[in-house]
UniProtKB/TrEMBL annotation:
Keywords: Hydrolase, Manganese, Metal-binding, Polyamine biosynthesis, Putrescine biosynthesis, Spermidine biosynthesis. This is Agmatinase. Catalyzes the formation of putrescine from agmatine. Belongs to the arginase family. Agmatinase subfamily. It is an enzyme of class 3 (hydrolase). Mn(2+) binds at residues 112, 135, 137, 139, 216, 218. InterPro entries: Agmatinase-rel (IPR005925), Ureohydrolase (IPR006035), Ureohydrolase_dom_sf (IPR023696), Ureohydrolase_Mn_BS (IPR020855). Binds 2 manganese ions per subunit. The keyword Manganese applies.
Length: 290
């Protein structure tokens, strides 16, 4: 997919039609081929764009407008339906184009496996990369029922690529015993259950470093985000998620890419999940762009 082949429907609120002027490129990764419970996150990118129109372009938290940031919405990557390996390659190829033009990739999923090819490309440009991962699930399995390409495996692949010591996980409250043992004993900076307080403690150690931020919407309690494929009770509220994005934005880390994944609109007729996802993306756009 070339940048010129933009999504023909709604774009994220405030997006510029001019690629050259953009600092950041938004793109959708409509894939849910490997989910283990409920499919539907492939429809997330489109709906998050559509509901973004309910938002104001001004962030009262960051005291800036979306108009202060130039970003381009490249639309959804046309992925090979039902084919994880080919889809991963297509995502990687697209992100490589974004990075080659010295623009920051900001993706909307889709299942969490989509983060793996993005980080793999970003790592080629930033060999000292660290990742901040906000999620209900560890995503640290080597495989899921024999399948290495699964939404349960992306963080294990990333940890093995960039080094466990460069992975920071927050809000985790679900996973196998083996995953928790690996996280706690293998060098990962692992902060289960909580997000904002340990994130604030960890950020000074990442000062000056390139960081990729990945947010699974199920880090939120299902009361705040029921529209996701694998709900997990006991999560944080939307105010804390926004505060966590603001903490990263206000720190000395260099955000070089980000994504928000696992919004499945069909399971939330109220659309609160899609709306909170759109608001988080707005704050990422304003807060992470330099």
């Amino acid at each position: 997919m070339r940048f010129e082949e933009a999504y023909s429907g709604n774009v994220f609120i405030g997006a510029t039609p001019e690629l050259e002027a953009a600092q950041t490129v938004i793109y959708g990764m409509p894939m849910d081929w490997t989910v283990s419970f409920r499919p539907g996150s492939r429809f997330g990118p489109k709906r998050v764009r559509e509901v973004s129109l309910v938002l104001e372009e001004y962030s009262p938290y960051l005291r800036k407008e979306l108009t202060d940031v130039a970003y381009y919405d490249a639309g959804d990557i046309p992925l090979a339906f039902g084919n994880p390996e080919k889809s991963i390659a297509q995502i990687g190829d697209f992100v490589a184009q974004v990075l080659a033009q010295k623009k920051m990739p900001l993706g909307i999923g889709g299942e969490h496996l989509v983060t793996w090819p993005v980080v793999r490309e970003v790592y080629k440009y930033y060999p000292d990369l660290a990742i901040i991962h906000l999620d209900a699930h560890t995503d640290l399995r080597t495989d899921y029922e024999g399948e290495e390409y699964s939404h349960a495996t992306p963080l294990r692949k990333i940890a093995e690529l960039i080094g466990e010591e460069n992975v920071y996980q927050f809000g985790i409250r679900s996973g196998t015993k083996e995953e928790f043992d690996y996280a706690e004993q293998g060098g990962i900076h692992f902060y289960p259950f909580e997000v904002l307080a340990p994130l604030n403690e960890a950020l000074p150690a990442l000062a000056g470093r390139p960081v990729y931020v990945t947010v699974d919407i199920d880090v939120l309690d299902p009361a705040y985000a029921p529209g996701t494929g694998t709900q997990e009770p006991g999560g944080i509220n939307s105010r804390e998620l926004l505060a966590s994005i603001h903490a990263i934005a206000g720190s000395d880390v260099q955000v070089v890419g980000a994504d928000l994944v696992e919004v499945a609109p069909a399971y939330d007729p109220t659309e609160q999940t899609s709306v909170v996802a759109a608001k988080v993306i707005r704050e990422m756009l304003i807060g992470f762009s330099r």
